[in-house]
Design goal:
It is built from ten helices and 17 strands. With about 350 residues, the protein is α/β, with parallel strands linked by helices. It folds into two domains: about 160 residues, ATPase, nucleotide binding domain (Nucleotidyltransferase, domain 5, 2-Layer Sandwich), CATH 3.30.420.40; about 130 residues, ATPase, nucleotide binding domain (Nucleotidyltransferase, domain 5). β3 and β4 form a beta hairpin. α4 packs across α10 and α5 packs antiparallel against α7. The longest helix is centred in the last third of the chain and has 29 residues. The structure holds adenosine-5'-triphosphate and magnesium ion. Adenosine-5'-triphosphate binds next to α5 and α6.
Length: about 350
């Protein structure tokens, strides 16, 4: 569901503008019989200076412009157009139900019904929606996922992209990009009820999808930063050292055992937030069972996160590999880097797939 859909073109970069790092993916679609397969054309990763972006708001435009220019340069792409995602407090996502009307009447009807659910005037936001066909809803009604993005926040992103001399093509919800990436990479999850949890630095996106359709979406203002902050505080360390300790690296004077309690404490908080979302989903749908949990984002690399979630939720947990179904030329790309960093590229991959293809 692109929130805004500009001119269609085949050459578009997926750019994940994260608060910890930018991620760039460019794909080329190829037809193999009836199926579309994607080949990796460019890949990029560029750390963003600390606090240049805070919970989805751009605080230091110059730093973000520099990072955009640098990632494009380093990835050696010849493409100038990009697709990016929005998430966090600048986006309001709600699921509503409306009466089923004829297709020609639906658009106006949904926008009208959406008004009381969006706490802003139509002038303040861009609204988009996706109709969800679901057995939970009476046949005379349809489920609709509404997405409203504050124009003010959107303009901040459009500005830095324009100053970096790039063109914006599609603006998507990060959550839908994440779902697209998983569905394109894992055929088996197209039939099941899955929960994808993308845990970044400051935001975790939770998407519950059944048979390939999103049924519930929520962004939680919680992520890897909370782990680093607590380690910093508990062990009296500087930010960089706390980051290293969190990633399991040896830091002089810090024993791994000392870090465990802080990590476990934050794990529990994160679990409680996710549980609330699962509970809400269970109480609002007739078929509340979740078959699989898929995790991605940088924090999915935390040691023991898979074991922790599997035990707590008693549901099989897997780390997403967004390159699972992607053709990669080993002569052109560093396969070791891709293997280590794979879950970090889930959002960028979903944006790139949507940008080049007709997957959804
Ligand atoms: N090996 C690792 N172990 C633990 N945490 C890690 C590891 N690698 C990265 N991280 C953490 O992942 C987070 C960054 O993930 P990601 O790149 O998905 O975030 P982002 O998209 O930039 O941020 P956001 O979307 O929240 O603004 C950071 O908190 C970082 O410390
Ligand atoms: Mg992110």
């Amino acid at each position: 569901m692109p929130v805004l859909d500009f001119i269609k073109s085949k050459k578009v970069i997926g750019l994940d503008i994260g608060s910890f790092a930018l991620k760039l993916v460019e794909l080329k679609p190829k037809k193999k019989g009836k199926e579309t397969v994607y080949e990796l054309v460019s890949l990029g990763y560029e750390p963003v200076p600390y606090q240049s972006i805070v919970e989805g708001s751009i605080m230091d435009s110059t730093a973000v412009v520099d990072a955009i220019q640098h990632i494009f340069y380093e990835s050696k792409t010849k493409t100038n157009k990009l697709s990016f995602g929005v998430s966090g407090s600048s986006v309001i996502v709600k699921r509503i139900e409306v009466q089923r009307l004829s297709p020609s009447e639906m658009h106006e009807h949904i926008l009208w019904e959406a008004r009381p659910h969006i706490p802003f005037t139509p002038e303040e936001v861009n609204i988009d929606y996706e109709i969800i066909e679901s057995d939970d809803v009476h046949p005379e009604r349809v489920g609709v996922i509404l997405a409203a993005v504050k124009k003010e926040k959107l303009n901040d992103y459009l500005n830095v992209i324009a100053i970096a001399d790039k063109a914006s093509h599609i603006i998507d919800l990060e959550s839908f990009a994440i779902l697209n990436s998983v569905l394109a990479n894992y055929e088996m999850y197209q039939q099941r009820c899955i929960a994808i949890i993308n845990i970044g630095a400051s935001i975790s996106n939770v998407i519950i999808a059944r048979s390939g359709h999103p049924v519930f979406v929520r962004d939680i203002a919680f992520g890897g930063n909370q782990f680093t902050d607590l380690i910093q505080k508990e062990l009296n360390l500087k930010y960089e050292k706390a980051e290293s300790v969190k990633k399991g690296r040896q830091v002089e004077g810090v024993s791994p055992a000392a870090v465990k309690p802080a990590i476990n404490l934050v794990f529990n908080e994160l679990k409680n937030e996710i549980s609330k979302t699962f509970e809400f989903h269970r109480s609002n749908t007739t078929e509340g069972r979740i078959d699989n949990i898929l995790i991605s984002g940088g924090t999915a690399n935390l040691e023991s996160i898979v074991d922790f979630f599997s035990q707590e939720f008693d549901i099989p947990v897997e780390v997403v590999n967004p390159f699972n179904n992607i053709d990669i030329n080993p002569k052109k790309f560093d396969l070791e880097f891709i293997k280590d960093m794979a879950p970090v590229f889930n959002v960028a991959m979903g944006l790139a797939i949507r940008a080049v293809g007709d997957f959804k």
